[in-house]
Each structure stands twice: as C-alpha cells, then as structure tokens.
Amino acid sequence: MSETTRCGFVALIGEPNAGKSTLLNRMVGAKVSIVTHKVQTTRTRIRGVALEGDAQVVFVDTPGLFRPRRRLDRAMVAAAWSGASDADAIVLLVEAHRGITPGVEAILATLAEQAGERPVVLAINKIDRVKAETLLALSETLNAKRDFAATFMISAERGHGVPHLREWLAERMPEGPWLYPEDQIADLPLRMIASETTREKLTLRLHEELPYQLTVETETWTEREDGSVRIDQVVYVMRDGHKGIVLGSKGETIKAVGSAARTDLREFLGRDVHLFLQVKVRPNWLEEPERYSEMGLDFKDGA
C-alpha cells in the first residue's frame, strides 16, 4: 500500500428494488445487506467497507426512496437522504428496463437540492434486460436532465461494470487514514446483522403475506467456550393471526427460517451458530421509539 491513503463515504440511492443492496454486497465481496425481491427491505443505512488499492471506500446502502405513507416509511426516507448528505460521492441507481419512472424524476428533483457540490454518479443497473440502443437512449436522456460526474452501465447481480465503478470512486475519495481495520467489511453491530439475516429469510419465506408487519431483534448474544455463539432473537408481529403465519403449521415456517438464517450466519461469522427464535405479538411496535433505535432509525424522523 502506498504512503498516501484515501478514505471516504459513498451513498447508494435509488428507488426501492433498484439493486442497491446487491451492488453493496458485490462491492464489498460479502453479504452485508439484506437482499430480497420485496421492495423497501433495507430499513437502515447499512455500511459496507470495500478496499480498492490505497483507498477504503465506505458504502452506505440507504433505504429505497419512495413516497412515504407511515411513520416507519418517513423515518426510512429521512435516513436515506441523511446518508446521501453525509457522503463524499453519491451513486444513483436506475433500473435499465424501468427507465425514468415518476420515482426517478422525484429523486432527481430532490438531488438538485440535496447533493450540493458532491459528485453524483449515474449507474444504470440490470443492463442485461434491455438492448444496447435502449441503454444509450436512457443514458442520454438522464444526462440531459442532470450533469452527472460519470455514467456506468452495470449489472450488480452479475458483476458487470462494478469493478470500474469501484475504481472510479476509490480514485476520488479524499486523502486520509482508513476508518476501519483492513479485515472489517461492515460497521453494523453483529447483533443487527444477525437480525437482518433472519428478517431477510422471513421476507423471502412469507412472500406477500406479511412483509412489512414484522421486525426482528437480537435479544442476547452469548459467546460459548467452544468458540460457537448462541443468538436469541424475537420476531415481533402486530396481530395474533400474524404469529400463526410466522410459526406455520406445526412450527414448520419458523424452523425453516431459523435453519436458513443459521446457515448464512455460520458462513458470515466463520463459526458454529446456535440460533433460537421466539415470536411475540406487539400490536403497536411501529409506534415504539425503541424499535426504531434497534433498526438504526430516528423515531422523530417519522413524525
């Protein structure tokens, strides 16, 4: 590594499902952000740390920007713009096949106020879904709407174009010492990564039945003498009927979720994991400040 090091923050913004979490995981080279086909799955600003040459790039995966209806939605959107305003550079992800939606138009309008002097990079994602001429036309139209610092055509899922984007960003990070140890890939507490992992499995398993009516909290994290870890978690739902859905017939759903989450956590932590899940009904968890604190959100932002 050269004597001069660089370190900075890059905010990934875009509509829900634009591929921000997939891009973050691809940039970092590990799974640190929850990735599902449901929209609005990222509830907090998840930071992933990537190394590129002499630069440490800290990626902030913000919640998808959308028109908020509930307190939780408003807190998520506030967190997203806060993540962008704190960054050294901003990457706007636009889905190639969806093009310039009303949501993208709204983000562009807010960027004009929020971005200031920060470089904003356009990343057109999911390029494998459209023809080359469609891509070029979309790029031209978007660049006519805003003077982007650079435009990249990428597939976050397949990795196409991602190394070039990472190199470009790394070269433009400010000079300064690295903020994280060389082997650290995320600044989320392990307890929150564990909660997010279980929530991802629940979201994937439950499909449309219950996606946003639940939250997962890690109650205890116990290091065991044999090097393994015991993790006790609570799944909070809003109604008794929801509890039955999460448990499933003879507890099959919660067992499958626990097994899938345990496998991911074992791989992520590199050691044995004993995961225990409980399901509890809390009708008003969406209005409880402590639930927001657990998610890394500010309860007041949802007012």
TrEMBL record:
Residues 14-21 are annotated as: G1. Residues 125-128 are annotated as: G4. InterPro entries: G_ERA_dom, GTP-bd, GTPase_Era-like, KH_dom-like_a/b, KH_dom_type_2, KH_sf_prok-type, P-loop_NTPase, Small_GTP-bd. GO terms for cellular component: cytosol; plasma membrane. PROSITE patterns: G_ERA, KH_TYPE_2. Keywords: Cell membrane, Cytoplasm, GTP-binding, Membrane, Nucleotide-binding, Ribosome biogenesis, RNA-binding, rRNA-binding. Gene3D superfamilies: 3.30.300.20, P-loop containing nucleotide triphosphate hydrolases (3.40.50.300). The keyword Membrane applies. One of its GO terms (molecular function) is small ribosomal subunit rRNA binding. It is found in: Cytoplasm; Cell membrane. Residues 6-175 form the Era-type G domain. GO terms for biological process: ribosomal small subunit assembly. Residues 206-283 form the KH type-2 domain. It comes from the Bacteria. Residues 40-44 are annotated as: G2. GTP binds at residues 14-21, 61-65, 125-128. SUPFAM superfamilies: P-loop containing nucleoside triphosphate hydrolases (SSF52540), Prokaryotic type KH domain (KH-domain type II) (SSF54814). Residues 154-156 are annotated as: G5. It is a peripheral membrane protein. An essential GTPase that binds both GDP and GTP, with rapid nucleotide exchange. Plays a role in 16S rRNA processing and 30S ribosomal subunit biogenesis and possibly also in cell cycle regulation and energy metabolism. Belongs to the TRAFAC class TrmE-Era-EngA-EngB-Septin-like GTPase superfamily. Era GTPase family. Monomer. This is GTPase Era. It comes from Paroceanicella profunda. The gene is era.
